[in-house]
Design goal:
Elements: H1 8-20, E1 24-29, H2 33-47, E2 55-59, H3 69-83, H4 95-102, E3 105-109, E4 121-126, H5 134-141, E5 144-154, H6 171-174, H7 185-194, E6 200-204, H8 215-218, H9 234-245, H10 252-256, H11 262-277, E7 282-288, H12 294-307, E8 312-316, H13 324-336, E9 345-349, E10 359-364, E11 372-376, E12 390-393, H14 401-408, E13 414-420, H15 428-451, E14 461-467, H16 478-487, H17 495-498, E15 513-517, H18 519-522, H19 527-543, H20 549-557, E16 561-567, E17 579-589, H21 593-601, H22 610-619, E18 628-637, H23 646-659, H24 667-675, E19 707-709, E20 721-727, H25 730-738, E21 742-746, E22 758-764, H26 772-788, H27 798-805, H28 819-825, H29 828-838, H30 851-859, H31 869-879, H32 885-892, H33 896-932, H34 942-965, H35 979-987, H36 1012-1027
Parallel strand pairs: 1-5, 1-6, 2-3, 2-4, 4-5, 7-13, 7-14, 8-11, 8-12, 12-13, 18-20
Antiparallel strand pairs: 9-10, 10-11, 15-16, 15-19, 16-17, 17-18, 20-22, 21-22
Helix pairs in contact: 11-12, 12-13, 25-27, 27-31, 29-33, 30-31, 31-33
Length: 1028
């Protein structure tokens, strides 16, 4: 075996890292780079005076070797028997096999790297460069301790510029049906950034140093060894003084001696103060970058809580693997407090892990003391905290925000919260912007209530702590600086350093202009471009809570994306202007109807094109994908310029640009220039002319200008609509509605990350009367939403509900309220109940079943009445969300009596409307009956008809009188005497008032009257005659 002398600069790089407690980075180019890992690890082990460094080996899918120790030993013994080798350490042994057998290596897939949170390794190996993402890079590099080594393995290539065009695995997520070509700008910036890292060397698979390494690394010199006196910093001296002052205060003094930095000691002291006070409605929040000792401080604080008599302590994190450091420092705290394993406490390990046993419970049972327990729980198990006294939430930024809120809601125990906000976690900003802001408000309310001698039961006090001094590695670690600059991780630490607001005041909206940023220039790693990029990322990070390094790669490599920024008047062209507002947009749509139909019928969706696929699936409208749209991915306004109209101004200018109102006068010239070849921007790589050992990398030259006015830019896309998708909140909904966007989609399941519901809003580029499709979508969305408000959306506030179901973009005509509509929805008994309630004869509970129907009719424009805002909130809250008056009292901040009075007036308006409609309908029935009659002129007048009827009646009466007079049966009632006799008697009246007329007896004629007896006799006679 031929031995080769290794460049001494590699050894000096590793030793300098150990002396300064800084990490080192080595990039190996070549397929045999795996074998050089053994040599680098040997050099690292030899330079350190401690145990062999542990190794974290990350890969995509497969390794070229077996990770099973027993299998490797069996294979090694077979080779030894075949070759006659005597054992391990012989000349014929494979050094790589010896390295695998004698080193503690933790193998992990890139997809499983979240499980290594909070762990520390001495060396990290990253292979499969095409699978590497910014998130994975930050997550793995930050696990390496000071003096450690990071090794990146690359395939064999003739030039590193071949990485400029390397297709990454993540690019498959960026491609869409209309945008297939990706440009790996992030790879170019990554390779160029290596030349600025002072603690980085780029070598080939023979450990030859390449000239493309940084000048500092190429001319590296060994650092002098530090003495014990010179090695102490001011912070370490202050820490020693703190430990000496607390030496007599036990057990605090022993725990403080375990701290490594002054920041950690101060934080631990404040945590122990909260523990001794036993303020169970108190929350301590620890925020810091990676490697600052948050988990260690929490572990020592838990040991102190056990010493102070806490019985039930619960610990939670994304996974048990993340608590390895925390439990390690709990045991360290037990050691300094003279707790002994198996005598004073027992350790319980998890049984679900295949390779490693993680601690999940510690049971303390010292003599003459009560039983104490430290137990791990899942973040989704808040029900187990009924007897909790102290809750530790480690790596809270990696836990979904709704779960963290559940752990804090109604908590009557002390809470310690730690999170990484300037690292790779995507929820870091979510925690700081959402959760901590809510806790600050509650703490402020509690402080105010204490001053005014009022009692509060739901609020908690907040104590925010911060760690700045690193523990895992030294201060100003070159790898940390390189990683922060590459991924813009520290853009929110010191805003004044990146974006200084001009002292001349805010520019007027009329003087602001919208510019398009050239992504080729922005990510070219030029000095001015890097400054502008950091200002841009500062806006995005400070304005949005969902940020991760992967967003930077999407911003640089994703096709169909553009970046626009709103700038004030540019006075000095030699200085970078201040960014007032930045917009990241994505071009979507222009999909074939057949592709959309084929994908959706199989239950599939294409990558990208968020709005077209979502709307096509929601409304089953396959033609929507044919339209072209622009989705606003991010809209960020400078924190000092927020709520001044700059965001609205930027959207207005962007809309005018896509409408074609911003005309490019030199469009023909720009068209010619854009079609010309770009030989000065893209260099053609010839493998024979650029050998790897002679290559030096520099940023590209001849790039287009960084900023381009919209009036100087040719419109490349024909756009039909503007769209936005965001997590629904009251402020954002109000902002987008103010810009005339309409909601057309609301996801029914909340985001696991933030607990918010995704909302899609659209705005047509053309006039509203030319795009009726958007209004039809909105009407269908409103109809669905009204039926769903009683389910998941019941938690929405009344103001948010009113903003969702009302719009002012399209004119709406209320339908006619008819009697048939009343009869379809209400019975006579229902109307009587409503009438009785308006007269205050019954309670409102008697009509609660009718409120949902009334609310649906009103919000579907079928109930033409005018209501106040509070009455509309009452109608939607009770009728659509099924809330009680008590809940609305808290949400609307109005007394219950006032709400019931307004509710009564609301019902009275509805009853008046119903009564008026019924009365009008009843009046129409009478009018209709008169209108439908056959009206003709009379042939005779009324007098003629009366005369004819009178004559007819007289004739009938005279005939009746004659018939009566000639009736013989009435003669017996006739008065005696003739006329002459009566006249004579009247003349000769002797006795006044008495007239006497003698009765004359005439012979009466016999009149036979048949009786029923005679009839029977006659019948018998007839029978006899017949018999004869």
């Amino acid at each position: 075996m031929v031995k080769k002398k290794i460049d001494n600069r590699i050894r000096i790089l590793i030793e300098n890292g150990i002396k300064s407690f800084n990490r080192s980075l080595v990039v190996i180019v070549g397929d045999k780079g795996r074998d050089q890992v053994v040599i680098l690890h040997h050099m690292l082990s030899k330079a350190q005076v401690k145990a062999r460094p542990t190794v974290l080996w990350c890969y995509k899918k497969e390794l070229d070797f077996s990770t099973h120790r027993k299998k490797r030993m069996k294979q090694m013994r077979k080779r030894q028997q075949a070759t006659g080798s005597t054992g391990v350490g012989g000349d014929d042994d494979n050094p790589f096999e010896v390295f695998l057998s004698s080193t503690q290596i933790h193998y992990t897939f890139y997809s499983d790297t979240p499980k290594i949170l909070g762990r520390t390794f001495g060396m990290c190996v990253l292979q499969d460069f095409e699978a590497l993402t910014p998130n994975l890079l930050a997550r793995t590099v930050e696990t390496v301790e000071g003096g450690g080594l990071i090794v990146i393995l690359l395939q064999t290539m003739r030039s590193l510029k071949q990485l400029y065009t390397l297709t990454m695995d993540v690019h498959a997520r960026y491609r869409t049906e209309t945008h297939r070509q990706t440009e790996p700008r992030f790879n170019e910036r990554f390779i160029l950034s290596l030349s600025s890292c002072e603690q980085c060397l780029i070598v080939d698979d023979q450990l030859n140093i390449l000239p493309c390494s940084s000048n500092t690394s190429l001319n590296i010199e060994a650092l002098p060894s530090k003495t014990e006196e010179n090695s102490l910093t001011l912070e370490q001296i202050e820490l020693k003084k703190l430990c000496y002052s607390l030496k007599e205060t036990q057990p605090i003094g022993n725990l403080i001696e375990c701290c490594k930095t002054l920041d950690q000691g101060k934080v631990l002291l404040k945590l122990l103060d909260s523990i001794t006070d036993k303020a169970f409605r108190h929350t301590c929040s620890i925020t810091a970058s990676r490697g600052r000792g948050k988990s260690a401080a929490l572990g020592l604080a838990i040991a102190g809580a056990i010493a102070f008599g806490y019985s039930n302590i619960y610990v939670t994190s994304p996974a048990p693997e993340n608590l390895k450091i925390l439990f390690e420092f709990i045991l360290k705290g037990f050691n300094v407090l003279d707790y002994q394993d198996h005598i004073d406490y027992d350790i319980q390990y998890s049984s679900n892990d295949h390779k490693e046993k993680n601690i999940i419970q510690l049971t303390i049972h010292r003599p003459k003391q009560h039983r104490q327990v430290i137990q791990y729980i899942q973040p989704n198990e808040p029900s187990r905290l009924s007897q909790c006294e102290l809750l530790i939430i480690d790596e809270a930024a990696a836990i979904p925000l709704p779960l963290v809120k559940q752990l804090l809601t109604g908590a009557n125990y002390l809470i310690f919260l730690s999170s990484t906000i300037n690292g790779y976690e995507g929820t870091g900003r979510s925690l700081s912007l959402k959760l901590l802001e809510q806790l600050r408000k509650q703490s402020a309310v509690l402080t105010t209530a204490t001053k005014t001698t009022k009692t509060t039961t739901n609020n908690r006090t907040l104590n925010e702590l911060e760690l700045n001094e690193p523990i895992r590695y030294g201060i100003n670690d070159p790898i940390e600086l390189w990683l922060n600059n590459l991924l813009c991780l520290d853009c929110c630490q010191d805003p004044s350093k990146f974006n200084k607001v001009t002292s001349s005041g805010c520019p007027s909206l009329e003087s602001c202009s919208l510019y398009c940023i050239s992504r080729d220039t922005l990510f070219s790693y030029n000095e001015s471009s890097e400054k502008f990029l950091r200002r841009l990322m500062y806006l995005f990070v400070s304005s949005h809570y969902k940020n991760s390094p992967n967003d930077l790669q999407m911003l640089s490599d994703a096709p169909g994306h553009d970046i626009y920024c709103l700038l004030g008047p540019i006075i000095d062209s030699n200085q970078l202007p201040d960014i007032l507002c930045a917009i990241q947009v994505c071009y979507e749509g222009d999909l074939s109807k057949d592709i959309v139909a084929r994908q959706l019928t199989h239950g599939q969706r294409g990558s990208g094109d968020l709005i077209p696929w979502t709307i096509a699936q929601t409304y089953q409208d396959y033609t929507f994908g044919k339209m072209s749209g622009v989705r606003i991915v991010r809209l960020a306004t400078h924190p000092d310029y927020q709520r001044m109209g700059y965001g609205t101004k930027a959207i207005h200018l962007l809309e005018k640009y896509f409408q074609g109102h911003i005309v490019n006068i030199d469009e023909y010239n720009n068209l010619e220039s854009s079609s010309s070849p770009k030989a000065d921007q893209v260099e053609i790589i010839d493998d024979d002319d650029l050998p790897l050992l002679n290559e030096k990398l520099h940023p590209r030259r001849g790039l287009p200008p960084l900023l381009e006015k919209l009036s100087e830019r040719r419109l490349k896309h024909s756009i039909d609509y503007l769209g936005v998708s965001y997590g629904l909140s009251a402020d954002l909904l109000k902002f987008w509605k103010k810009n005339q966007f309409l909601p057309i989609y609301l996801r029914q399941t909340a985001s696991e990350l933030t607990g918010e519901y995704s909302c899609i809003m659209l705005k047509t580029i053309h006039q509203s009367n030319q795009a009726p499709w958007l209004f039809s979508y909105y009407q269908d969305f409103r109809r669905r939403l009204i039926s769903l408000l009683g389910f998941q959306f019941r938690i929405f506030t009344p103001g948010m509900v009113l903003n969702l179901i009302q719009q002012a973009v399209y004119p709406e005509i209320k339908e006619e309220f008819t009697v048939s509509l009343i009869e379809q929805n209400f019975t006579d008994y229902d109307l009587r109940r409503l009438e009785s309630y308006t007269r205050n004869l019954v309670d409102y509970h008697l009509i609660l079943d009718l409120i949902p129907t009334l609310a649906k009719l009103f919000y579907l424009n079928r109930l033409p009445i005018q209501l106040t805002v509070v009455q509309m909130a009452l109608l939607s809250g009770i009728g659509l969300q099924y809330k009680t008056i008590e809940q609305l009292e808290n949400e609307l901040n109005l007394p219950q009596s006032q709400l019931l009075a307004l509710f009564n007036k609301l019902i009275k308006k509805i009853i008046d409307l119903i009564n008026s409609v019924q009365e009008n309908e009843l009046g129409k029935t009478f009018v209709n009956s008169l209108d439908t009659a056959n009206m003709q002129p009379l042939d005779k007048s009324l007098r003629q008809e009366l005369n004819e009827v009178a004559a007819t009646i007289r004739i009938r009466q005279s005939e009746e009188l004659d018939r009566l007079m000639h009736d013989q049966q009435l003669t017996k009632y006739a008065v005696n005497g003739s006329e002459e006799v009566w006249k004579g008697e009247l003349k000769n009246i002797s006795d006044p008032g008495v007239i006497s007329i003698p009765r004359t007896l005439n012979k009466r004629k016999d009149i036979e009257i048949e009786s029923h007896f005679d009839l029977s006799k006659q019948k018998s006679k007839k029978k006899k005659k017949k018999n004869k």
